[in-house]
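Can't paste images in this forum, so I'm doing it all in text. The chain is below; anyone willing to post the predicted structure tokens underneath?
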Amino acid sequence: MSDYDDSFAPGGNNVDLSDFDDDFSSAEAPSFDEVPDGKYQVRIDSVRLDRSQRGDPMIKWDLLVIAGQHQGRHIFKNSVITPAALPYVKGDLKTLGLALAKFSDLSERLDDLLDVTLEITKRTRGDYTNVYFNKRIEIAGGNSQSLSDDEVPF
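Text version of the structure:
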């Protein structure tokens, strides 16, 4: 005789979901619509290096809205790294206050960007969405701080 309870065996034939019936009927399916264009206060929730479909290196940003009616929603930004785009990438890093001796040091410094709070602008034109880092901001009780142009290390 086995002590194994097969009521939760793969296949779901013996799984009773009736305890969820009331909650299911009143549950709202989450909306995955894009956050509308505008200015937002966000916190960098995650950042990583990846490659674009064309194989170019890029920075993938996941920005969490921390204030306003869209609080808790995510805005995503991809910064493709090409010679033409490098000044914009450097500008974003400057806005965030990240000083690099060499650009190749970025992969070891990505964690320094986590939890930084900033004001961004999201703007859509046609099929293309751009996210601009306006300025680093300080949120009461947070660890981010505003930097003047004289303090930014570029």
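The chain has three helices and five strands. The longest strand covers residues 38-51.
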